[in-house]
């Protein structure tokens, strides 16, 4: 059981990420104590299916012995080695080489970070350095998408387009610009894929003109599927069309695969499925399956050579104490073995089952849209299907739905705007996938009984 003293210590001393500090003081912590496979157990001894893989990260599932052994071995042999001063260690070298082999196109050079936010930061630094090296330092403006999420560092939070990451922080910065998302379910141009792609292309071109032309623009960022914005899946061909505009205008195209990487949507990298090779690609989460922190930036050979030539004998001044950490890299290698040893395959099968199962919820009175790819999905709730009316803010039962799903033995992400998010571990069994769908339906049926939700329903 979770003791009162632990709850008090948490209240008094531990600041939780992206939380209402006062709200959390009142609510107290809900603590997990153990996990195995695709399930987690809370401090009351309740076991739940983790339909969100922690924070879309535990792709390989919990308690994988080979991963635990790899980390333990590395901790014993060499727990730390800096990459500074020309030093190094074996695991990050091997991991970089394997990843370069598996990455799309000429993304042959890997820079390891601590997570996704500093990977995104690193892309901004490399992009600026690259354009300076090419004699075009005035290309210093960056464009990303509304509903996009690119981390919580100052730079990444500015590229992010979720208001809660800006308010009170003086963001975004004046060189950070946004264009509308493809958001198929609520796009003003309708749901026709060709029209959505044409609109996005036109919006990108217009934004480039508005901020001084291509000679001012360094890079455009896109997640292959927007995650924290509500699992927004672009129409097939959208990534390719945006990539082509960037190539034509000589603007770097940066794919943020922090969520979509490592089998989340099916293949190892979603970009491969989209048929594109970005100039840079960021990863984290599934890279180490959440066992230890690590992120990565992949650089195209073209970018790498320009930066290396320009720096010559001088240092490229970018690095962290924990860049290329040997324990994280050893975990990365062990996790990669699992992906290649059948986990990606299982994820693809279970992903198809998850999508089919959730699609079956479309008949529920509260469900307006079901979308996703592979083991990444969302259900968007509405009170009027024809008008796509979101649940009214006062009745928005996100926390209620989250709590209720928990009671029903399911962890989901309940976004504030009435979207339910799913990103289960790739090791899920058929019974666990079916459990996710059944427990969601039960949770929605119970929510339908709430007086405020019933009153809002048409
Ligand atoms: N980019 C994307 C697309 C993400 O989803 C996230 C985190 O969810 C990040 C960047 C930031 O990663 P981290 O939380 O590891 O810093």
Automatic annotation (TrEMBL):
Which domain of life does the protein's organism represent?
Bacteria
Which family does the similarity line name?
Answer: Belongs to the class-III pyridoxal-phosphate-dependent aminotransferase family.
Q: Which cofactors are named for this entry?
A: pyridoxal 5'-phosphate
Q: Which GO terms describe its molecular function?
A: pyridoxal phosphate binding; transaminase activity
Its name, as the record gives it, is Adenosylmethionine-8-amino-7-oxononanoate aminotransferase
Organism of provenance = Gemmobacter aquatilis
Please verify whether the record's keywords include Transferase: yes
Q: Does the keyword Transferase apply?
A: yes
What keywords appear on the UniProt entry? Aminotransferase, Pyridoxal phosphate, Transferase
UniProt cross-references to PANTHER family, sorted A to Z: AMINOTRANSFERASE, AMINOTRANSFERASE CLASS-III
């Amino acid at each position: 059981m979770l003791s009162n003293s632990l709850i008090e210590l948490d209240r008094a001393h531990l600041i939780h990420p992206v939380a209402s500090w006062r709200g959390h003081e009142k609510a107290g912590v809900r603590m997990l104590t153990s996990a195995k496979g695709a399930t987690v157990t809370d401090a009351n001894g309740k076991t739940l299916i983790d339909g969100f893989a922690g924070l879309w990260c535990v792709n390989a599932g919990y308690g994988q012995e080979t991963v635990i052994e790899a980390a333990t071995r590395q901790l014993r042999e060499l727990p730390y080695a800096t990459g500074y001063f020309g030093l190094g260690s074996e695991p990050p070298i091997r991991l970089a080489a394997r990843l370069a082999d598996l990455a799309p196109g000429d993304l042959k050079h890997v820079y390891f970070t601590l997570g996704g936010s500093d990977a995104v930061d690193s892309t901004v630094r490399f992009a600026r350095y690259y354009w300076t090296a090419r004699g075009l330092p005035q290309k210093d403006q960056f464009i990303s998408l509304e509903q996009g999420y690119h981390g919580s560092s100052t730079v990444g939070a500015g590229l992010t387009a979720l208001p809660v990451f800006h308010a009170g922080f003086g963001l975004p910065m004046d060189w950070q610009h946004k264009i509308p998302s493809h958001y198929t379910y609520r796009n003003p141009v309708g749901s026709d894929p060709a029209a959505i792609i044409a609109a996005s292309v036109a919006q990108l071109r217009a934004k480039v003109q508005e901020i001084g032309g291509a000679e001012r623009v360094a890079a455009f960022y896109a997640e292959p599927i927007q995650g924290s914005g509500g699992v927004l899946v672009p129409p097939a061909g959208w990534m390719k069309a945006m990539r082509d505009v960037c190539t034509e205008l000589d603007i770097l195209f940066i794919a943020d695969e922090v969520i979509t990487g490592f089998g989340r949507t099916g293949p190892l990298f979603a970009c491969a499925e989209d048929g594109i090779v970005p100039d840079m690609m960021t990863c984290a989460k599934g890279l180490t399956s959440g066992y230890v922190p690590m992120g990565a930036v992949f650089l195209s050979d073209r970018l790498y050579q320009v930066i290396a030539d320009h720096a010559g004998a001088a240092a490229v001044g970018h690095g962290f104490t924990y860049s290329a950490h040997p324990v994280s890299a050893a975990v990365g290698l062990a996790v990669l073995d699992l992906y290649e040893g059948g986990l990606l395959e299982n994820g693809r099968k279970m992903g198809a089952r998850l999508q089919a199962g959730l699609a079956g919820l479309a008949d529920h009175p509260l469900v307006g849209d079901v979308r996703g790819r592979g083991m990444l999905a969302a259900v968007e709730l509405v009170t009027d299907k024809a008008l796509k009316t979101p649940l009214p803010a006062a009745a928005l039962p996100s926390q209620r739905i989250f709590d209720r799903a928990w009671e029903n033995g399911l962890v989901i992400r309940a976004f504030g705007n009435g979207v339910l998010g799913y990103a289960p571990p790739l090791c899920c069994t058929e019974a666990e996938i079916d459990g996710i769908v059944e427990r969601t339906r039960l949770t929605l049926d119970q929510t339908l009984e709430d007086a405020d939700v019933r009153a809002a329903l048409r």
